[in-house]
């Protein structure tokens, strides 16, 4: 007889995105089943974790996982990017990133989730699913046994295996990655990053006593050439990696095509995609793991909202908006950083990557259309105003103020106690997105005090009945700087 069980959420895949979602759902009191096809620990690339990862581990009460192993926490960097002169960036300037053993870290995260109540099937293959009145019925295969799991939600965190090419839209030109290892003692004990005319190279010591080097080039560089020839030729022309080219004795180089993409329908009838099943980022920023985990936390908010309130439309809109925002902001940042590289626009690799890119979708879904609209050129920002608060406060105190005619009030979902609730937000051309809170203070009630004939000082005094005076001043100056709170002279 086929075993059956019911759960709130079935998660497929135990990478950082899947286990992060599991840990948070368990903390919110939900029942979670997770299926992982491979035994752990498994070899996994992606050891460099960006500084923002620490806040996520703190939030999950999992900080000790970053310190219990022999991970590297204070690596300096040698960088050749906007000029051909090497620059040293110390650990304090880079931020508290960490170089980990991804296979071990993934296992530690999964073990922690099991300690907190996760039901795990591993190794177990996800074979199929079908919709039911209550959600989804899935079939898992473990050894010779088939297991049926009934769930309200499926969170697909299988990485690139969690989607098909026809469901992806590229958000950057494809890149070829070639990588290999040297003994760490042959290279500097720093992270190395170097831009070259044909691409860029990253290298770093890893916790297993190796030094990993990865080159990123355009696919055309391999035409008519062997992988070792391209790899060694690229390294031999560098400043930071010449030693690696001279010392290399191994022929175990690995290569893959790096696709940067978004799924065109990431939420379908409570089947959600997480991590690289939803979208992937250009490797330039080394924020892939952080972004995957952070997006999982936002997806959990949406799931928790439906499980506790039933507000599906609001939850799906929130999930999709956060995904579009992540992809768009990262793409614009990446293209700007590529544009700064010293080889410049005369080289195809850099020219093609120095502008935001989104491909045409074979099936232009509503989600794809919203995402594509975000890839238009961003509004150029004017120079920032340097505000002398004491001087300006005295000058503005008796000035009459009014609200900008371009200001729009809009109901928007906000996260309150891990559930989405509608709050009144403001929209304005000088704001990157709608805003309901500023410094944890709800803005709409404050702006109701900006009545006709009010002065800058009277508004600050009125707000100081709700928040501390210094905070009221900061909020007033922020809104004035954005031309939302306008003086008569504006």
Average of the residue pLDDT scores: 89
Strand content: 25-35%
CATH topology of the domain at 389-487: Enolase-like, domain 1
CATH architecture of the domain at 389-487: 2-Layer Sandwich
User: Roughly how many Å is the radius of gyration?
Assistant: 25 Å
Low-confidence stretches: none
Assembly status: single chain
| Overall geometric form | globular
Determine the fraction of residues in helical runs and give it as a percent range.
Answer: 25-40%
Assign the structural class, choosing from mainly alpha, mainly beta, alpha/beta, alpha+beta, or little secondary structure: alpha+beta
Question: What is the strand and helix layout of this fold?
Answer:
Layout: E1 4-12, H1 16-27, E2 32-35, E3 48-49, H2 53-59, E4 77-80, E5 87-89, H3 91-94, E6 98-99, H4 102-115, E7 119-121, E8 125-132, E9 135-142, E10 145-156, E11 168-170, E12 175-183, E13 191-196, E14 199-205, E15 210-217, H5 227-236, H6 242-247, E16 254-258, E17 261-263, E18 267-268, E19 271-273, H7 288-309, H8 312-339, H9 348-353, H10 366-373, H11 389-396, E20 401-403, E21 408-416, E22 419-427, E23 437-438, E24 441-442, H12 443-447, H13 456-463, H14 469-481, E25 485-487
Parallel strand pairs: 1-2, 1-10, 2-7, 4-13, 10-19
Antiparallel strand pairs: 3-6, 4-5, 8-9, 9-10, 11-17, 12-15, 12-16, 13-14, 14-15, 18-19, 20-25, 21-22, 23-24
Helix pairs in contact: 1-4, 1-7, 7-8, 13-14
